[in-house]
Amino acid sequence: MEIKEVVKEKYGQAALRVQSGGSSCCGASAVLDGCCDPITSNLYDALQTSGVPEEAVLASLGCGNPTSLAQLHEGETVLDLGSGGGIDVLLSARRVGPTGKAYGLDMTDEMLALARENQRKAGVKNVEFFKGEIEHIPLPDNSVDVIISNCVINLSADKDRVLRESFRVLKPGGRLAVSDVVTRGFIPSEVRQNVLLWVGCIAGALQDSEYAAKLAEAGFDGIGIEPTRVYSIEDARTFLTGQGVDVDAIAPAVEGKFISAFIRATKPAKCCAPGCCS
User: Fold this and answer.
1) Taking a C-beta distance cutoff of 8 angstroms, is the pair 66, 177 a contact?
2) d(Cα 138, Cα 21) in Å, to the nearest integer?
3) How far is residue 277's CA from residue 58's CA, in Å, rounded to a whole number?
4) How many C-alpha atoms does 242 have within 13 Å on its Cβ side?
């Protein structure tokens, strides 16, 4: 099965669990105990989630909180890549106000249905959810002020295409402000695969330097990668032990090398690259 179909099935099942009164969970830890810690837990504070439907919070499969770190202003247009149950779209809509707009793009019918229901419950008008793939964003050139995403770009099998599309739809001077999981330093391939299997919903994590290089190649500047959470081997011990992995043996190759990060980049205000100007 192609990566895209696996992701679609996984996120569709997560949406259905939330709609039936359960919680969505990423990673194989969900299979063990229904818990997503430490990747998806405690990302939003009570002030942020006040007025947001519980289902939107439960459906979050992210690894960060881009809405708390991105600079959003009244009247701006925001696009969330892989918007899931809609929490980041609803939070962004608050911040850009009634003169702004927040779009949510997702390829999973079940998540879109859940997001639209969450929008209805929240009574938010300046939001639109639409179906599509992040490799083929169905918006015109130079139409968005800010792109956010919460641990979705790393799921794509064609990250270069995602970043080129993001660059295309951003207005000159527009900002990319996404949460993602990245790795740092050399990690033996077999160790990397074991740990990324535990991470589950972020199994396509790039090395931080590679991520930055891909952003630059797409045309972005002002690139920054800021760690927000660092995962330790203890975070994955229960799962990896259950998979027959000698956790203590791989610990030195893992500690401090898998991190959630806030990734920033800017589309130059003036440039001649494709997607810069209409």
Assistant:
1) yes
2) 32
3) 39
4) 11
- Say yes or no to pLDDT of 86 above 60: yes
From the list 126, 81, 87, the residue with the least C-alpha distance to 108 is 81
Distances in whole angstroms, Cα of residue 101 to Cα of each of 47, 49, 87, 128 = 21, 19, 15, 8
Which pLDDT score, from 0 to 100, does residue 194 have? Answer: 65
The two structure tokens encoding residue 78: 């925001």
Encoded tokens for 273: 């690259």
CA distances from 70 to 64, 111, 252, 264, 265 (A): 12, 23, 34, 8, 11
Residue that is written with structure tokens 């002002």 in the block: 222
Contact present, 67 and 91 (Cβ < 8 Å): yes
pLDDT over 50 at 212, yes or no: yes
Give 89-138 pLDDT, tens digit per residue.
999 999 999 999 999 999 989 889 999 999 999 999 999 999 999 999 99
Q: Which residues pair with 107 in a beta bridge?
A: none
DSSP label at 136? B
Three-state DSSP state, 133: strand
Residue corresponding to tokens 């919460």? 150
pTM of the model: 0.80
Alpha-carbon torsion angle 187, 190, 196, 197, nearest 10: -170
